[in-house]
Amino acid sequence: MFIIPQTFFTGYQIDPAYLAEVPNGQTSIFLHNSAKQLQTSIICGLVTVEKSQYEIRSYAFPNILQIKSIPFRVSNDEKYKRIEFFAERQHFFIAQNRLILICCDVRRSITMYSDQKVESIVYIGNWPPLPQAIWKIMLQAKQLENDCCVLGCCRIDDLGVQNDIVYYKPNNKSEVSCKECNEGFYIFK
């Protein structure tokens, strides 16, 4: 399985009209064909437009299933409004459905949306370079909050492409870094 960071192919911009494509557009077709050719699954987030509404949706390929599970900014809670980076709510539609527990927004609480205990959560993101430490802390907090495995995959969008994959396993405080292997993994067991 390949997990590609949110908006990996386009980078994140606050002008969704510039980046958006229809749900089964060129990028979706490319990812579908790549997943079939590699005989694997590919999960990623794409900026889509439907009925003049823009969303960042997650998809699983080769089946082209929409898997966005946690609606982006569905809550009116002031706490979440304050940590919005680029006034996204003025540009992106608030999705209303969720199908599988894969999330594009580490700032959201999983327990707020799910009455079932989850075994693992995958977060995919695209953050600016400065709050990366915050992103990693939030992933650790999500692991503690939900007592489950948490995987985060984030593209650091700073004109250069840097990718960071962080993995936290429950019930262990030690960090094993595989940076020496140039794989970019942080493992908490």
From TrEMBL:
Signal peptide: none annotated. GO terms for molecular function: 2-oxoglutaramate amidase activity; omega-amidase activity. This is Omega-amidase. The lineage of its organism: Eukaryota, Metamonada, Diplomonadida, Hexamitidae, Hexamitinae.
